[in-house]
């Protein structure tokens, strides 16, 4: 659930859906994910956080 919310945020950040032709040559694109550990009340949880080519996405 958290990862799908993050995907929505990165889509809003770059301005188009992943694999959408509208993003071609836009200068900023979806660029995979990176693993992060989030501390919760039940312990650490591994989350895949999306990234963009410009490196400006911070959830």
TrEMBL record:
<dbReference type="GO" id="GO:0004803">
    <property type="term" value="F:transposase activity"/>
</dbReference>
<dbReference type="Pfam" id="PF00872">
    <property type="entry name" value="Transposase_mut"/>
</dbReference>
<feature type="region of interest" description="Disordered">
    <location>
        <begin position="1"/>
        <end position="59"/>
    </location>
</feature>
<dbReference type="GO" id="GO:0006313">
    <property type="term" value="P:DNA transposition"/>
</dbReference>
<feature type="compositionally biased region" description="Polar residues">
    <location>
        <begin position="25"/>
        <end position="34"/>
    </location>
</feature>
<feature type="compositionally biased region" description="Basic and acidic residues">
    <location>
        <begin position="49"/>
        <end position="59"/>
    </location>
</feature>
<dbReference type="GO" id="GO:0003677">
    <property type="term" value="F:DNA binding"/>
</dbReference>
<comment type="similarity">
    <text>Belongs to the transposase mutator family.</text>
</comment>
<comment type="function">
    <text>Required for the transposition of the insertion element.</text>
</comment>
<dbReference type="InterPro" id="IPR001207">
    <property type="entry name" value="Transposase_mutator"/>
</dbReference>
<feature type="compositionally biased region" description="Basic and acidic residues">
    <location>
        <begin position="10"/>
        <end position="22"/>
    </location>
</feature>
<keyword id="KW-0233">DNA recombination</keyword>
<keyword id="KW-0815">Transposition</keyword>
<protein>
    <recommendedName>
        <fullName>Mutator family transposase</fullName>
    </recommendedName>
</protein>
<keyword id="KW-0238">DNA-binding</keyword>
């Amino acid at each position: 659930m958290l990862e799908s919310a993050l995907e929505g945020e990165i889509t809003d950040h770059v301005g188009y859906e992943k694999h959408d032709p509208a993003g071609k040559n836009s200068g900023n694109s979806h660029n995979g994910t990176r693993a992060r550990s989030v501390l919760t009340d039940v312990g650490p949880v591994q989350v895949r956080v999306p990234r963009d080519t410009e490196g400006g996405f911070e959830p």
